[in-house]
Request: fold
Amino acid sequence: MRKGSPSHCVALSGGVGGAKLALGLSRVLPGDSLTVVCNTADDFDHLGLRVCPDLDTVMYTLAGISNRVTGWGQAHETWSFLEALSHLGGETWFRLGDRDLATHVERTQRLRAGETLTEVTAALCRALGIAARVLPMSDDPVRTVVLTESGELSFQHYFVRDACAPPVSGFRFAGVDTARPSPAFLAALEDRATAATVVCPSNPFVSVDPVLALDGVEAALRRTRGPVVAVSPIVGGAAIKGPAAKMMAELGMPVTAVGVARHYRERNLLDGFVVDDADAGQAAEIEDLGLPTLVTGTVMETLADRERLAGETIDFARGLDARRGNVAKAAPPERSA
Amino acid sequence: MRKGSPSHCVALSGGVGGAKLALGLSRVLPGDSLTVVCNTADDFDHLGLRVCPDLDTVMYTLAGISNRVTGWGQAHETWSFLEALSHLGGETWFRLGDRDLATHVERTQRLRAGETLTEVTAALCRALGIAARVLPMSDDPVRTVVLTESGELSFQHYFVRDACAPPVSGFRFAGVDTARPSPAFLAALEDRATAATVVCPSNPFVSVDPVLALDGVEAALRRTRGPVVAVSPIVGGAAIKGPAAKMMAELGMPVTAVGVARHYRERNLLDGFVVDDADAGQAAEIEDLGLPTLVTGTVMETLADRERLAGETIDFARGLDARRGNVAKAAPPERSA
Reply:
């Protein structure tokens, strides 16, 4: 990357895996050079409160207060609220910790007072001392509906209440036809200072696709100045966390990094792909899709892992950028039959 | 009291002191023979949640889960929510414990779904295993406004935020002109099975007066079959808890049991009065107001104290009932100048 060239990075993220890479990015990029755009199609209203699982996981992770044992919620959590709610006969299938609850109560109150989710999120991040900009993908409600053999399920009922047990046949994103992307999200993609966009190792179907399904996002990704690179959430035929691998199998896709690369590549959204060392044997096939591929360690157990993968991903994107000299992006290859 | 005669009791209650006597009543009366009507003019919406301090203190006390150290909230409480809310820059002047919060969240959700406060309270009491019937004074919002030298203050701002410091010059109950008493409250007063009504040792100005100010309540108290007796919240020139004594002084009233008796008697609402042994010297003066007076220990430190005072108060009311043979209540004496 040339001296004085743009240095801003946009990351698209779901929950845990995305948040880990976002944390790495926030530590290798200068102060305010990172915008993390979070999926909000997992959001739901529960007990009268607006719960935004992916936004919260990213916020808590960037603020250093995430619960690394559960993968969701806050560290040093207590559960008195839920225990008392249980005594009152209330709904307790969704595990709301006492600390976590403060986020939902404060957010809900601010939304009711007329703030947008983008504004509320900015205020919460400021209070938590987060330097990166964290954005919801949209200020409008979009809700993932999981299509299963026994009918449609709202995402949190599928994910938490039913523990991802029902086999899925597809997804729809209720509200996506009228929802607009958060204006700050589109502006970040259009900003000439944005040197790279990173699709974090999040679930392609329920964490990334809802973001891509918003009107104008795919076009903005094709237009954005810097390369768009994705990190595979599938490593050695399995997902590090969550139901991505199970979903791929149920949808009849190969449960491989190639399967993920093809999923994005078919829509001409990527300029590069990052796979784990365990999947080095798939790199040639992914390159054949027209996607330059970085092979490295993508499993982020330690903070050092997060920083190293973030640095390598940024450097990889910068290399692609230099190689193509910012020409218009290539058309995708023909779809394989 | 004659055999087979009515045995139901209605108690009007504010927070701590009222709840203590209500607990005593619930233990000396048979199973479902007690209706406790709670002041709701302290209620307020905080952080988007409906908080009902007096209802909650009574519920928690009757359920055996009240915090006897603070006098409000639940026992074995934790404070993670408030701590996290503080980190988010939220409002923390009103102390909401994690367990307590479950009540407010569940109540708010049920109210939003269209249940009345009477219905919500019944559901919460059922879940908590409370045999007595606990009623809000009204399903409509009534809000105490405290008149002070420096202007009007909402009750919780006066009571909690400002710790009752501003001198008061009066009160008004916003909404009381249009609010209706909870239908079950009026029905209980009109019920021929109601043998006595007890005005608990609660703050006359901000706990009992809002109940009395509701349209139809004073008339129903004059019509109710059994005697109406009040227990003085002022003992030895001081209030056991809360600002009642301070308010009386600021309003230019004598800070005595007589002062409280006169406050109710002027409106012809009482048939009898209960004062503490410490105020035995005032009994004759209260009798001169036309109010038969029971002198006994009214300071309720132990559960045995609560049960004894409840039993004595009920027996006192039964004695009044037998003496007057259920004739129409006497007119009040002329107001003293």
